[in-house]
Amino acid sequence: MTTHPTPPHIIIVGAGIIGLSHAVAALDAGYLVTVLDRDSRAVGASIRNFGHLGFGAHGGALAELADQARPRWIELARRAGIPLHHTGTLVLARDEVERAVLSEVCATERFVNARSVDAAAAAHLLGRPAIDPESAGLLVPGDLTVNPREAVGALAGWVHAHPNGEVRWGVSVHDVSTGTVATSQGPLSADHIIVTTGHRLGELFPEIAALHGLGECALQMLRIRTPHICGPGPAVLTGTSMLRYSAFAGPAAARLRVHLDQSRPDLREIDANVMLTRHTDGSLLIGDTHRVDSATPPFLDERWSRIILEEITAILGAGPPEVVERWQGIYAHSPTHDIVDARPLPGVSVLTLGTGIGMTLGPALGSRTIHALTESLPPTTHRGES
Predict the structure, then answer these.
(1) Could you say which residues form the signal peptide (predicted)?
(2) DSSP one-letter code for 287
(3) What CATH architecture does domain 9-68+148-212+336-376 belong to?
(4) d(CA 313, CA 87)
């Protein structure tokens, strides 16, 4: 009888950016990997976002993951042939209350490499001749931009082309138990199973979804064109963004929240994050609005979209833009947990985010999970052969 090393088999349920990031990390660690997804191609949250890899905006416990994600994203892009643009992010402040937030965070270590810009420089970065002289900005240089519609498909292609990897589209998963996944194509066996199904987690593990208060956050986004902007440039965040990202948290942001509650109830009503990214085809991805529910109605509110369009038009200083597309995004939302990380059964891991930053943090989360897994499941096992 002889023995030879055989890599353990990992099944990953969900081919979004988090699932594919786990797949790449597992392949790098020496495992056999099968990724399953119910859809025939990528159509979920991972293609419906801005493509903004905003590492600098995350503070607290998420800052370390964000810093780990950046070099991993650069490596993923190189391998999979994903166009990656070193655009940076312009955080735009349009009044004294918003400027106070930037002044406060400039003194923190998180923004040590950021550069303050005046109104003239901010206007230049926005591609317009001038802007209100009360405006100012903070240029965060390390942030990146990808086209989300291209990135996820390219990464799935890389995994599927790997000698030890495959991605199976159009395969529904009905049940997960230790060592076995029940699918629409019959049962599949694995040494370990990782579930990364986002807002659909409750379909397989309702008790975990309930424990974390997991619901759905629906957002409205648009793709536009304007005559004077073409090609990549910095992503743009605004005062509403300062209320959503943890790196800006502090007394000044708390005052900004009260200020916007009073001065812009329309933006607060739709829980707006007024921001944009610029892409190589000359279009801009803009948004977005947020509504949390247990089950998302499919209907888009045109008034909400008009509010976003008016804000972006004011920021860009241009006439009404051409709207190319509108869509609804949905991601998992937890009021208590940014990251849902559970081990419901032996040999089964569950990983999703309770907030909409999976595109940025996905590669770091995948590496973290697989690194922990190798302590209990070494990359090779020795199986006997007669």
Answers:
(1) none
(2) E
(3) 3-Layer(bba) Sandwich (3.50)
(4) 21
